Amino acid sequence: MKASVFVLFAVACWFVSQAELSPMQLTLRKVMNELEKVNNVMDKSTSSFNSPTTNDLKDCCIRSALECFRSQVMNLNVTQEKPIIKSLKSISNESRKKVIVEKLPSCNLVEGEKKEAQCKPCESYSKVNSQMFVQNFQTLLQKIYASQA
């Protein structure tokens, strides 16, 4: 009987902790979990991807950096195709949801021009291997998540 009370208490605590998270945090957590699944079965091939690094993640350019990662994630090579393709699609779809994108910092107008224009295009970021690409993507997601806490 005591064990079942403990289990019920643990479940109740989990629900309360989940209720405190914003829709953006829940979506980001889902994307991070799916990315971790992909990372575990990813083919560590020599494929290279354009990747923003932590030095490139200025507040004003977070939106374009996220789009850069999102646009390339489906190109990752995975060893277990069927279940992981679903994860890749989920990452791509969830990371473009308004609940995330609309909450990202937007750039103020500077002398009549958008500051966002100063952000690098995806193609200009240095190329990295798939492992570093995923690591940089995780770093960006963690930065976004932490800014919402």
From TrEMBL:
GO terms for molecular function: cytokine activity; cytokine receptor binding. GO terms for biological process: immune response. It is found in: Secreted. Coiled coil: none annotated. Gene3D superfamilies: Interleukin-15/Interleukin-21. The keyword Secreted applies. Residues 1-19 form the signal peptide. GO terms for cellular component: extracellular space. It comes from the Eukaryota. Belongs to the IL-15/IL-21 family. Cytokine with immunoregulatory activity. May promote the transition between innate and adaptive immunity. Induces the production of IgG(1) and IgG(3) in B-cells. Implicated in the generation and maintenance of T follicular helper (Tfh) cells and the formation of germinal-centers. Together with IL6, control the early generation of Tfh cells and are critical for an effective antibody response to acute viral infection. May play a role in proliferation and maturation of natural killer (NK) cells in synergy with IL15. This is Interleukin.
